[in-house]
Design brief:
This is Glycosyltransferase family 2 protein. By secondary structure, the chain is α/β, with parallel strands linked by helices. 54% of the residues lie in helices and 11% in strands. It has 18 helices and eleven strands. Helix 1 packs across helix 7, helix 10 (240-250) packs parallel to helix 11 and helix 11 (274-297) crosses helix 17.
């Protein structure tokens, strides 16, 4: 029997308040997500993919899975696909492109692997009104481009994102891929709710996001994008999507996310422990970008106050999450000395069992949107709980290692010295265009 005695009630008050706060806001997100509606297709679209869209794909090691992804992009009938890779990968990437569609896929190179440098090179070689950045493993439904372009009917919209699901690497998902799928489900709820509440979102995910070319061709943007430093001395290569999102906010552009099956892409995740390295890189990027948004640039407070709140909430999230096990540990310790002291009526097994039941119930409830479609994944809920505590500790570790800017899962990517030299020394033609919409 699980019980709490009245003399111990005050001990659980802080625990209950934190839990109530967390799940109240989760309920608000769920309600906002359910009431969110994607932008419908216009009867007479201003933008047509075959005339107005260039897809830019920075990559260094695309394999056979690239063919499936590229064919899915071509189903949307873009005007052109530009692949940007490092010089030593030109031949294998050109062979892959030729095997798919040599007429609509162009392969360009930069001297060495650096994602932001590759993206900037693609921007300079684009002639269409809309640029869509995509990962080399992002698989689109054929309706994705029309639904993304529909958002640009609003001339204030500068960037558009999409919802996502995990595509397993093998025949079935590993536990790491299921954890990623859980995270994406929660993320889809977060971005649709924030878009519905105040029109903003924390990040236009780099897996697939579309932008007005006029914004990205601005020399001010290109310079800032390729000369982005943390604390003025650690040059950043990853975190490009966070930079792009902040640029939209700070330069007066609106953003939108199409959360619907017609615009939902599939993406692979690391199917092994290297997924943890991915998460660590993403976490560092989130810390850097959110701290900048909240305390340095500060545009987010007035343009998207709800998103600002979610950013602040995430700053404290690892601390509030770790309060639970710390309190349980304290109560277990207190119960063990009750035999000596007397007067404590809550046995240690009751405390631990109560906490486990609470975790299983609440985390399962939080994952119901995912489990509704894939009920077999309920067996991974305990792994998700353990990962949550690991993630809280990792977030604190990431906070104290923000100076580490390496890719993590790909060795040798992004030499800051070479990147600066390449972007400063290149003889490129620029067109200065105002960044703010009229």
């Amino acid at each position: 029997m699980l019980y709490l005695t009245s003399d111990d009630f005050p001990i659980f008050v802080p625990f209950g308040v934190i839990g109530f706060y967390r799940y109240l806001w989760y309920l608000i997100r769920i309600i906002a997500s359910v009431t969110y509606r994607p932008v419908p297709l216009p009867e007479n679209p201003t933008y047509v993919a075959s005339e107005d869209v260039t897809i830019i794909v920075p990559t260094i090691d695309a394999g056979e899975e690239f063919k499936e992804a590229a064919n899915s992009w071509l189903a949307g009938k873009p005007k052109e696909i530009i692949i940007i890779t490092e010089e030593k990968m030109l031949i294998p990437l050109q062979e892959l492109a030729n095997a798919v569609d040599p007429e609509r896929i162009r392969v360009l190179t930069v001297p060495f692997a650096n994602k932001r440098l590759q993206m900037a090179h693609g921007i300079r070689n684009t002639t269409t009104d809309i640029i869509v950045f995509a990962d080399d493993d992002a698989i689109w439904p054929p309706t994705l481009l029309p639904y993304v372009l529909a958002c640009f009917e609003d001339q204030k919209v500068g960037g558009v994102g999409t919802s996502q699901r995990v595509q397993p690497v093998g025949t079935r998902m590993t536990v790491w891929e299921v954890l990623a799928a859980f995270r994406l489900t929660i993320r889809n709820i977060e971005i649709s709710s924030s878009t519905h509440i105040d029109g903003g979102l924390p990040c236009l995910s780099g897996r697939t996001a579309a932008y007005r070319t006029v914004i990205l061709k601005d020399p001010e943007f290109l310079h800032g994008f390729t000369h982005d430093y943390w604390l003025g001395k650690y040059q950043l290569n990853s975190g490009d999507d966070k930079f792009l999102t902040r640029w939209m906010v700070s330069h007066g552009w609106s953003t939108y996310v199409q959360c619907c099956k017609e615009a939902e892409l599939l993406s692979t995740m690391k199917p092994n422990w290297r997924f943890l390295k991915q998460v660590l890189r993403w976490t560092r990027n989130t810390w850097r970008s959110d701290l900048r948004s909240l305390f340095m640039e500060r545009y987010i407070w007035t343009t998207h106050p709800y998103v600002a709140y979610t950013m602040v909430d995430k700053l404290f999230n690892p601390f509030t999450l770790l309060v639970g096990p710390c309190l349980v540990g304290y109560l277990v310790w207190k119960s063990t000395i009750a035999v000596i002291d007397g007067g404590y009526h809550l046995p240690w097994w009751n405390i631990i069992l109560s906490y486990i039941v609470w975790l299983l119930a609440t985390r399962t409830a939080k994952l119901l949107p995912h489990l509704w479609h894939t009920p077999s994944h309920i067996i991974y809920v305990p792994a998700f709980i353990l990962f949550g505590y690991y993630f809280a500790i990792m977030k604190l570790y990431a906070l104290f290692t923000l100076h580490e800017t390496g890719w993590g899962t790909r060795a040798g990517i992004g030499d800051p010295t070479k990147a600066t030299a390449a972007t400063d020394g290149g003889n490129h033609r620029h067109f200065h265009i105002p960044a703010r919409p009229l």
